[in-house]
Amino acid sequence: MPEDFKNILEQFEPVSLEELKDYKLLNRIDTKYICNYKQLPEVLKLATEHFNIQTISNERIFSYESLYFDTDEKKSYYDHHQGRRIRYKVRFRKYLDTGDAFLEIKKKKNSNRTNKRRLQFEFCEDLNAKHKEFLNSELELNADTFKPAIWTIFDRITLAGKNHIERITIDTNIRFKNELNEVSIPELIIIEVKRDKSTGISPFTKILRSHRIRPMGISKYVLGNIMLSPKLKHNRFKNKLITIKRICYDT
């Protein structure tokens, strides 16, 4: 990370992981944005007035690995491609800085609502009987059909509103890999604004608008699949890929 970028993060007041538990946002709106890495320093400078930063042992940016599971037919990917009303993602998420790992199920019920269930396990690349028992209790699919698919690796900054209940996640240094290939998009930043439905426009959204950064839903799992396997059917996502290419390489 460039030294000037670290200096910007140091300007934020810290918030602990324990304090972040108060930001539950049970009735929330999640909105994703993408931008170029070059735009991020100015956005963060403006955010210091309204947000604190998650800090653990003086660290302010944390590394994550996610191993996604899918069927041989890539049902999770194609359910997303076809826009199915109910679809699932299954993943192991590992917090590299602490070593904690969770098996997670994300269930998308409609365009506005995602439910996530997770249990803590020791990280492993193969699903065992206990993992499958958990998955079968939540999925309307047979957990035996899920196998390792792709990895997503990234670094994350988490901000929390000073005087309002809002969380911001900023993912940087995004990479993808599978058994055959590995790709990275260092120019891409994925931002997610998580706020209570009852509140008005968030300060962070106003900052993004001032930099002409607009909402665009994007799944790292979908993007990783396409980048690792360009021949995979992805016509539903072509416009988003064009936008990502323009933002990353033409900005």
Description:
The chain has 251 residues and is of the alpha+beta class. It has a single domain (3-249), classed as Alpha-Beta Barrel (mRNA Triphosphatase Cet1, Chain A), CATH 3.20.100.30. The protein is built from eight helices and eleven strands. Strands 1, 2, 3, 4, 5, 6, 7, 8, 9, 10 and 11 form an eleven-stranded mixed beta sheet that branches. The longest helix has 12 residues, at 238-249. The relative contact order is 0.20.
Reading the helices and strands in chain order gives: HEHEHEEHEEEHEEEEHHH
Give the beta-strand count.
Answer: 11
pLDDT average, as an integer? 89
Q: Poorly predicted ranges (pLDDT <50, ≥5 residues)? A: none
- How does CATH name the architecture? Alpha-Beta Barrel
Shape: globular
* Structural category: alpha+beta
Backbone CA Rg: 18 Å
Under CATH at level 1, the class stands as Alpha Beta
Note the total helix count. 8
- End-to-end gap: 20 Å
- Assembly type: single chain
Our count of domains comes out at 1
Beta fraction? 35-45%
Question: How would you summarize this macromolecular structure in one to three sentences?
Answer:
This protein has helices spanning 3-10, 17-20, 40-47, 75-81, 129-138, 203-210, 220-228, 238-249; strands at residues 14-15, 28-36, 51-54, 62-70, 87-95, 101-110, 113-120, 147-161, 166-177, 182-185, 188-196. With 251 residues, the chain is α+β, with helices and mostly antiparallel strands. Strands 1, 2, 3, 4, 5, 6, 7, 8, 9, 10 and 11 form an eleven-stranded mixed beta sheet that branches.
